[in-house]
């Protein structure tokens, strides 16, 4: 593989500014690498080769006139529930058809403003739920890459693209990031408008970012949020972390032992790591999440299920049918509980810089499933920022990851803590596919 394709995110616009790289040559090399590798990986639904190269040429003309944007020439993959003007949004759901989107989603429009080059669409599970996508895990092809943002995570892990966008309604950003050995960041609920994104459950849907390092994710997030300063200042001292015992007890033994070892490393590096339990039961949090998610899915899909029942995969159809029998009173009560639980957890998280737990209960399972969403859905319910950072490999050579969770709205602080943690941890090698 061309070593240029492994440049850190900020290096791409920097080299274009210095005339060491052209956007067109970088985008072309990226597309050619995808074409060589994706028959096996199946991360991509569609590559807009001609459109991407035209945009790269326009960006080179802009750079020649002295204007280089924060994401100038950075190729980006978009999960196929996100509208890109001129490309279909299929969402692995046949009734949506092949009709091209008329306009860019808000996140796509912002990426273009920043100089990013939209390469195309990455595979999703059907309508971003749980019926598996065709994408393979780049580490071991008979394992799942996770879901629902399967293609986005796998494409970043396989070095096919340096940045990808996904969505999360339960665990669909941070879990596939963990299974594929990349960084996945789910910022606070509402951090960016969802205009032009196919909904799954209105009050739970988040946009999220995939990249190969915390630095890359942070750089993209800060640019998307229109902050003037693109660098995150380093922590002035090691963080205080709450190691969540509740999730260690639910994890597989190898994962629990690994995270205890990670906590030991952090303590040796000066962090204050305190073992704590959540002030509420994890099962209550998960029950509230499920009632809201299924109830909203049931309402959203009522008419579509009546029109096209055979178009639904078995997991999605079952969830929608369950959601249609959730009583309105139960859904309203779950929403009230959600607010109450969020207040309790806000006070709990305020006691430290971040909570620490495994991203998932185990490494990537087989491809019949997209994995266990319990360890991520809690934070989706609460809307708090969460980030998955690769932390090692199992004895069988599969990626493991830690999850850091911060207070609602404290996204930049969480990124600082994650950057500190990443410096302590050993770097993962590229997966065999790369």
Briefly summarize what is shown.
It is built from 15 helices and eleven strands. The protein has 434 residues and is an alpha/beta fold. The chain has one domain (1-434): Alpha-Beta Complex (Amidase signature (AS) enzymes), CATH 3.90.1300.
CATH class: Alpha Beta
Q: Assess the beta-strand content as a share of residues.
A: 5-15%
Counting structural domains, the number is: 1
The strand line-up of the biggest sheet is 1-3-2-4-6-5-10-11-9-7-8
* Helix coverage percent: 40-55%
* SS field, number of helical segments: 15
Overall outline: globular
Termini separation comes to 7 Å
Q: How many strand elements?
A: 11
In the CATH hierarchy, the third-tier topology is known as Amidase signature (AS) enzymes
Q: Architecture in CATH? A: Alpha-Beta Complex
Mean pLDDT over the full residue set? 97
Structure class: alpha/beta
CATH superfamily: Amidase signature (AS) domain
Task: Walk me through this protein's architecture.
- Strands 1-3-2-4-6-5-10-11-9-7-8 form an eleven-stranded mixed β-sheet, with helices on both faces.
- It has a single domain (1-434), classed as Amidase signature (AS) enzymes (Alpha-Beta Complex).
- Helix 10 (282-300) crosses helix 13 (328-349).
- With 434 residues, it is an alpha/beta fold.
- It has helices at 11-17, 23-41, 49-64, 106-113, 150-157, 174-180, 214-224, 245-250, 253-268, 282-300, 302-307, 314-323, 328-349, 374-382, 411-424, and strands at residues 44-47, 75-79, 117-122, 163-168, 183-186, 206-211, 240-244, 272-276, 354-358, 386-393, 399-405.
């Amino acid at each position: 593989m061309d070593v240029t394709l492994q440049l850190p995110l900020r290096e791409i616009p920097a080299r274009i500014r210095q005339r060491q790289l052209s956007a067109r040559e970088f985008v072309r090399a990226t597309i050619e690498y995808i074409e060589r590798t994706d028959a096996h990986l199946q991360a991509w639904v569609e590559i807009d080769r001609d459109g991407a190269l035209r945009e790269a040429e326009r960006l080179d003309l802009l750079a020649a006139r002295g204007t280089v944007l924060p994401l100038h020439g950075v190729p980006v993959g978009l999960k196929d529930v996100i509208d890109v003007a001129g490309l279909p949004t299929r969402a692995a759901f046949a009734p949506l058809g092949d009709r091209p989107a008329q306009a860019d989603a808000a996140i796509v429009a912002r990426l273009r403003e920043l100089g990013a080059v939209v390469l195309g669409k990455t595979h999703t599970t059907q309508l971003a739920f749980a019926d598996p996508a065709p994408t393979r895990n780049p580490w071991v092809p008979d394992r799942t890459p996770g879901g629902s943002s399967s293609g986005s995570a796998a494409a970043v892990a396989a070095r096919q693209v340096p940045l990808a966008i996904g969505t999360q309604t339960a665990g669909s950003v941070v879990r596939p990031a963990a299974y594929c050995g990349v960084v996945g960041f789910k910022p606070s609920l509402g951090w960016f408008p969802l205009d032009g994104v196919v909904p799954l459950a209105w009050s739970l849907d988040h946009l999220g970012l995939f990249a190969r390092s915390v630095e890359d994710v942070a750089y993209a997030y800060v640019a998307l949020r229109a902050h003037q300063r693109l660098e995150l200042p380093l922590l002035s001292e090691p963080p205080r972390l709450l190691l969540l015992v509740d999730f260690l007890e639910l994890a597989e033994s190898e994962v629990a032992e690994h995270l205890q070892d990670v906590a030991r490393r952090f303590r040796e590096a000066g962090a204050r790591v305190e073992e704590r339990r959540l002030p509420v039961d994890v099962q209550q949090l998960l029950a509230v999440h499920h009632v809201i998610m299924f109830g909203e899915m049931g309402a959203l899909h009522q008419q579509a299920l009546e029109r096209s029942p055979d178009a639904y995969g078995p997991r999605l159809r079952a969830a929608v049918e369950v959601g249609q029998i959730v009583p309105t009173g139960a859904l309203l009560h779950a929403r009230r509980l959600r607010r109450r639980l969020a207040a309790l957890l806000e006070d709990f998280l305020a006691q430290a810089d971040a909570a620490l737990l495994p991203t998932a209960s185990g490494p990537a399972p087989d491809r019949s499933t997209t994995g266990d969403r319990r360890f991520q859905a809690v934070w989706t319910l609460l809307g708090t920022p969460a980030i998955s950072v690769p932390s090692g490999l199992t004895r069988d050579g599969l990626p493991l990851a830690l999850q850091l969770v911060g207070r609602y709205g404290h996204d930049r602080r969480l990124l600082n803590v994650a950057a500190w943690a990443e410096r302590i941890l050993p770097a993962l090698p590229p997966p065999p596919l790369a």
